[in-house]
């Protein structure tokens, strides 16, 4: 008898946790810098580091999306009902779309040449100040929405775990 799959495959799990670390850091450190507005060496250092990190993350994210599209998700098998599964799926799709929007707007808001860990220089794709500002606004609001969704996502995983639905082990 063929056993049905109950957890994400190894590659999907590696993609998830690498992405989780990068996105959690980029989102919350980015929002912190934007809120605190400290003009210090630290701020510049973190800002340059984040731009390099998220640029390196672009091919990883593309790999993750291709892998997610090519593989089947494990069945919930009694853990979530049909409505909950639909909600979870919608939130996941929305997160993927938002990350795409954040990456595209991040690249397009760059008006000056920037370095990726001091190794590669990337020339800006757009020169128009107004367009760059527009993408910067999109980047800003999309990252706010993503922060809320991350809290909902992690909150849902914790909530299900405590109510006896072991969702977390699908991703471990
Ligand atoms: C996973 C992808 C990314 C996430 C989660 C992310 C998140 C953020 C957040 C939360 C902020 C602060 C927003 C604000 O309130 O103003 C920010 C700012 C910024 N992001 Fe991104 N970002 C990502 C990708 C990128 C990429 C690919 C680039 C460009 C190559 C980029 C360039 C910038 C720049 C220039 C700022 C302005 C502030 C600064 O210099 O730190 N971001 N990002
Ligand atoms: C401590 C933090 C996190 C935990 C404990 C966690 C846990 C999980 C678990 C258990 C799943 C499987 C859920 C299911 O199949 O219904 C999952 C899926 C997912 N997570 Fe997270 N996660 C975390 C952070 C993040 C972050 C920061 C992001 C990015 C914004 C993220 C994006 C996703 C996506 C897109 C999926 C769906 C995967 C797919 O179906 O292709 N997660 N997460």
Topology (SSEs and partners):
Blueprint: H1 10-36, H2 41-70, H3 82-108, E1 114-116, E2 120-122, H4 129-162
Antiparallel strand pairs: 1-2
This protein binds protoporphyrin IX containing FE (2 copies).
Task: Sum this structure up briefly.
The chain has 172 residues and is mainly α.
Low-confidence stretches: none
What radius of gyration results from the CA coordinates? 18 Å
Shape field: elongated
| Strand residue content | under 5%
Could you say which small molecules are bound to this protein?
Answer: protoporphyrin IX containing FE
The helix content, as a percent range, equals 55-70%
Largest sheet strand order: 1-2
What does this structure look like?
The chain is mainly alpha-helical. It has one domain (10-171). Helix content is 69%, strand content 3%. It has 4 helices and 2 strands, in the order αααββα. A two-stranded antiparallel sheet has the order 1-2. Strand 1 and strand 2 (120-122) form a beta hairpin. The mean pLDDT is 95. It binds protoporphyrin IX containing FE (2 copies). Residues 23, 26-27, 30-31, 33-34, 47, 50-51, 54-55, 57, 99, 102-103, 106-107, 110, 139-140, 143 line the site of one protoporphyrin IX containing FE.
């Amino acid at each position: 008898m063929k056993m049905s799959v109950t957890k994400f495959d190894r590659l999907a799990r590696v993609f998830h946790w690498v992405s989780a670390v990068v996105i959690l850091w980029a989102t919350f450190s980015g929002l912190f810098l934007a809120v605190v507005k400290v003009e210090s060496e630290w701020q510049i250092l973190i800002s340059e580091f984040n731009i390099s990190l998220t640029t390196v993350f672009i091919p990883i994210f593309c790999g993750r999306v291709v892998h997610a599209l090519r593989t089947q998700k494990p069945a919930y098998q009694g853990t979530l009902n049909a409505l909950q599964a639909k909600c979870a799926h919608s939130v996941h799709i929305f997160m993927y779309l938002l990350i795409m929007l954040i990456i595209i707007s991040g690249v397009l808001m760059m008006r000056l040449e920037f370095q990726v860990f001091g190794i590669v220089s990337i020339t800006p794709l757009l020169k128009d100040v107004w367009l760059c500002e527009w993408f910067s606004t999109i980047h800003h609001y999309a990252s706010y929405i993503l922060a809320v969704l991350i809290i909902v996502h992690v909150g849902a995983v914790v909530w299900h775990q405590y109510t006896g639905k072991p969702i977390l082990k699908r991703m471990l």
